[in-house]
Design brief:
Length: 91
């Protein structure tokens, strides 16, 4: 039986960014479902990503929607490169 590893906060940040990149503009609920998180937890992660400049928040029809920034795309690119190295090193 293969044991799945626990996600780090960086894994969760990357998953949220990927979901929002694919579905932008994306709602909090859609991002939380896509990343496999409860809405309240996803909200905390998204707030952190917005404050770090990795996501943009905008109001569309009085609802908050999120889109990925160029800095967020840079984070994702770097994250996926690092994951490749971790696989090579067996981590």
């Amino acid at each position: 039986m293969k044991r799945s590893r626990r996600r780090t906060k960086y894994d969760i940040y990357a998953e949220i960014l990927e979901v929002i990149r694919r579905l932008e503009p994306c709602s909090l609920t859609r991002a939380s479902y896509g990343a496999g998180l409860p809405v309240d937890r996803a909200k905390k992660f998204i707030e952190k990503l917005v404050s770090a400049g990795l996501l943009h928040e905008e109001k569309i029809n009085d609802k908050k929607k999120y889109s990925i920034s160029s800095r967020g795309l840079e984070f994702l690119e770097t994250y996926w490169k690092m994951r490749e190295f971790m696989v090579i090193l067996g981590e």
